[in-house]
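Batch job 17 of 40 flagged for manual review because the log was empty.
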Amino acid sequence: MRRILLLLTTLMMMAPARADLQAVELYSQDALLQMIRDNTHLAQMRRDDCQLVEDVRAHAKVLKEPAYQMLWADMLMYGVCVEEDVREGFYYLETASESGLPDALEQLARYYRIGKFTLVNNDLSVHYYKLASEQGHLRARFDLVRMYIKGHGAPRDYPQAYRWLFEEVYQHEEDRQTARALLAQLEPLIPPRTVAAIRADQKFQDKYR
C-alpha cells in the first residue's frame, strides 16, 4: 500500500510538467527541406522533445516521403530521439536518394567522399554529386568541380560543370567568389575553344533576355 501511495505521489508531482508540454505540429515538406539544408533538422527534433518520432517513422516507412526518409536516416545514424542504427539509417538515406531528392544525393556523395559511415569511394561520390548537380544543388556543384580539379571523374563532363557555375546567378557574394575561384582552377582542364564557346553562349543569352 505504501508503495502505491508513493507511486501516486510521484505521478502527481510529474503531472504539472507534462501539462506544460505543448503538442508539436508535423513539419511541412518545404519547412523540413529547409531545415535539412540549414542542418538544423536534428536540433529541431530535440527542441520538440522528440514528440514526432512516430510521425516521422510513419512518413518515412509507410508514406515513403523522401524528405522524411532523409530525416529518419539522420535520426538513426546519429542516434537522435531513437536508438542509433547506422546500417538502417544509411539504407533510408539511399532510399531518399533513389527518389531523386537532391539533398539526399548531395549528402550521400559527401559521405562517400569523406568516408563517413562507409568507405571512401570517389567514383560513387562523383556519380551522386552529378545527379544532385543536375537538379541545381549548388553545394553539390561546388564539390563536384573540386572533385574534377583533383582528377576524379571523366574530362568529358568538365565543360558541363564549368557551364553550371559560369551561368549561375548567385544570391550571396561568398558563393560568387567561390565559383570564380573554382572556375579559374577548372578552366585549364578544358579545351580553350570549349571555354570560349560557353562564355560566348552566355553573352548571347544575356543580350537577348
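Reviewer: the log was empty due to a logging misconfiguration, but the result itself is present. The two ends are 84 Å apart (CA to CA). Unflagging and moving on to job 18.
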